[in-house]
Design brief:
Shape: globular
Number of strands: 20
Largest sheet: 8 strands, antiparallel
Distance between the termini: 34 Å
Helix content: 25-40%
Strand order of the largest sheet: 14-13-10-6-5-18-19-20
């Protein structure tokens, strides 16, 4: 079965009752077209929404912060009519992202969240984010990736046995469902703890099925393979150093360090690669200081250091900022997600992950 058929038949289970919106850039057109045709064969109504790098930059250049903060009428309209969305919205050349002012980025994030998030949850829109949309030669050049190796890894990670991946994820979720205290230790003097009592764990297994919808989990991604939770917002304390290497806004970011106290970031440190992240974070809105997410990856074919750190086997991720999709209380706006490898994770004193390996 092709990737397009898998997206339509397995991941989103498209039927003739669906209105499907596909967001894409020109370099994604062959795959997007194949997915659209597969949807049409199911009897679905489909629209393909095309963006380009130049059009994206023009919005930031000519629109004010106030205009970017205002939800787009077209985005809101698509959300009002869609029952399923497939996102392939990734720039061709991420070097263009360096030209955008941090305040405008923050304003646009706020507008996009307002246009899509509340209504998407209300209408239970099934959404799939295709990470393969990121695979371009300019992106590999900007971030220092070996294009052939990266592309091969992404294809392999997106082609795993998703039934087996789901079984692994459900087993992990069962061991975590009653968890209270999480402790993360590891490289870079990482020593961070927080409380997840009573919070729901969300499973990314590549499929949005009836169980997910009943649990209020309408979003997934390909490649998939992670468990995430929203920690209690005032409980994080300690320090974490992210060593995985995260592509962000046209720069490869490595060495970001965060210190938390009572759930809030009290120190934001790093090197030259983290400076742009710090500026974007400072310009952000919402509860950008609060811990928002904890995640563990378990996709056996996904590798850290590229663009899917959050699903890489044994990788640990921490997010700060808005966490409404996870059932958290942080106000939407700015959000930063980064990852580390080689971590040890203890759950209520029991070791779950030992130096990046499940035990």
């Amino acid at each position: 079965m092709s990737l397009a058929q898998s997206v339509v038949n397995d991941c989103l289970r498209i039927s003739d009752d669906d209105n499907v919106a596909i967001n894409l850039y020109p370099h994604n057109l062959p795959l997007a077209e194949e997915i659209a045709l597969a949807c049409v064969k199911k009897g679905a109504d489909v629209i393909m929404s095309l963006y380009t790098d130049e059009f994206m930059l023009a919005n930031y250049q000519y629109l004010s912060e106030e205009q970017l903060r205002e939800p787009s009428a077209f985005c809101r309209g698509l959300t009002e009519k869609s029952t399923a969305q497939i996102t392939m919205a990734a720039t061709y050349d991420p070097a263009n992202l360096r030209r955008i002012e941090p305040k405008k980025l923050a304003a646009n994030d706020e507008g996009e969240t307002a246009a899509h998030f509340p209504l998407s949850r209300e209408r239970k829109i099934r959404t799939l984010d295709l990470g393969l949309a990121l695979v371009t030669k300019p992106r590999a050049k900007v971030y220092g990736f070996n294009f052939a190796k990266w592309s091969k890894m992404m294809q392999a990670a997106a082609s795993v046995d998703y039934q087996k991946l789901a079984r692994t994820g459900r087993a992990l979720r069962d061991t975590l469902k009653d968890a209270r205290t999480i402790e993360v230790t590891g490289p870079g003097q990482t020593n961070l703890s927080f409380d997840v009592s009573g919070r729901k764990w969300f499973l990314s297994d590549g499929v949005v099925d009836e169980e997910d919808i009943e649990n209020g989990d309408f979003n997934d991604q390909l490649p998939a393979g992670s468990l995430t939770v929203a920690p209690l917002e005032d409980t994080a304390g300690g320090h974490i150093t992210f060593n995985a290497g995260t592509p962000r806004m046209g720069r490869q970011v490595k060495g970001l360090q965060l210190t938390f106290e009572d759930g809030k970031v009290t120190e934001f440190k790093g090197n030259s690669s983290t400076e742009a992240v710090r500026k974007n974070w400072e310009a952000g809105t919402g509860d950008k200081d609060n811990i928002g997410l904890f995640g563990i990856g378990f996709n056996p074919k996904a590798e850290a250091g590229y663009t899917i750190n959050n699903v890489a086997y044994g990788a640990v991720s921490i997010g700060v900022g808005g966490n409404g999709p996870l059932g958290g209380k942080n106000r939407p706006g700015s959000f930063i997600l980064d990852s580390m490898t080689g971590a040890t994770v203890k759950v209520d004193g029991r070791t779950m992950l030992q130096k990046g390996k499940f035990v």
